[in-house]
What we know:
Elements: H1 10-21, E1 34-40, E2 46-53, E3 57-60, E4 78-81, H2 86-96, E5 103-106, E6 114-118, E7 121-122, E8 128-133, E9 136-137, E10 152-158, E11 167-172, E12 183-190, E13 196-198, E14 203-204, E15 216-219, E16 225-228, E17 230-231, E18 235-236, E19 241-244, E20 257-260, E21 267-269, E22 275-278, E23 285-288, E24 296-298, E25 305-308, E26 315-317, E27 321-324
Bound molecules: calcium ion (CA) (2 copies).
One calcium ion binds near residues 304 and 320.
Amino acid sequence: MPTPTFRAAAGPLFACLLALTFPALAEAKPRSTAADLRVVDPEGRTLADLTQLTGPARIGTDPRADCFGPGTGGSGDEVAVDGTSALGQLANAGGADRRVRRLGITDAFDFGLGICRIGPAVAPSTGYWYLKVNHAASFTGADQTTVRRGDEILWYLVEDFNDPVPDELDLRAPAVAEAGEPFTVEVTAYDDDGDASPAAGVEVTGADAPTDASGRATVTVGARTRTLRASGAAAITSNGVTVCTEALRDCPPGYARTIGGTPRADRIVAGRAAEKIEAGAGRDRIVARRGRAADLIDCGAGRDRVLFARGSGSRLRSCERVERR
Ligand SMILES: [Ca+2]
Ligand SMILES: [Ca+2]
């Protein structure tokens, strides 16, 4: 039986002891920050793939979360989760993506919270939720793994801890392409340590053949938009890249990426792509003035302020104060 989300005994326990012994070394004030989040189940289904702000959360532990063995279910008590942690990010993601809203967490262990369920995917007694930060395995529990701005967080449900951990696929593709015209995409495989290599022989949505030895494939998209992913046997399905085949100004607002806020006041800065922003409750401030792509901005409850580019075609909802520049 593995310890909750931990990969080895000495490393996490040591890290845990350090954290307990030297709390002053921990980052001072928790602050909301944006990082990428992806959750993939063993069938290769993507349960979440967005940019999600971190933030403090309270999670009800679940007596049925006993994937670590009989008697390891949660107490049913609510626990406070550090906002800068991977678990804090995950708990907030449920606001923007209902597929990962339900979490099965146990507080049966002294050294950290254990995770059995994310959305519909439940760890069997032989498996565990594998957590990677910037493509490398995390050796601390999810409630102790710090998420920093721009990090790439990946959760993958390993069904059998006796099997080698699959490589993670990472897809690079353009956000716009000519309809019916072939273009090149590139797939990288990251191992458990985060070491990168070209992903040869994997499938990519819309590709005429699997990737070559350099990890490249030729893809053609006929529809207005199509989400591409790379997948392969014994590999963790890649991030999705949605390609639009029209001029950027005619592409659907928010098609390229979702950014999820927290129920508190957030400062959300959109990039150049067409982003769908779900700010959530709280007094949010949203800055979306970069690029010409149209964003889809839901400011949510609370008195929110948005600054966006004139002529971008962005669509707004529940935004009380609007400035165009
Ligand atoms: Ca918010
Ligand atoms: Ca509002």
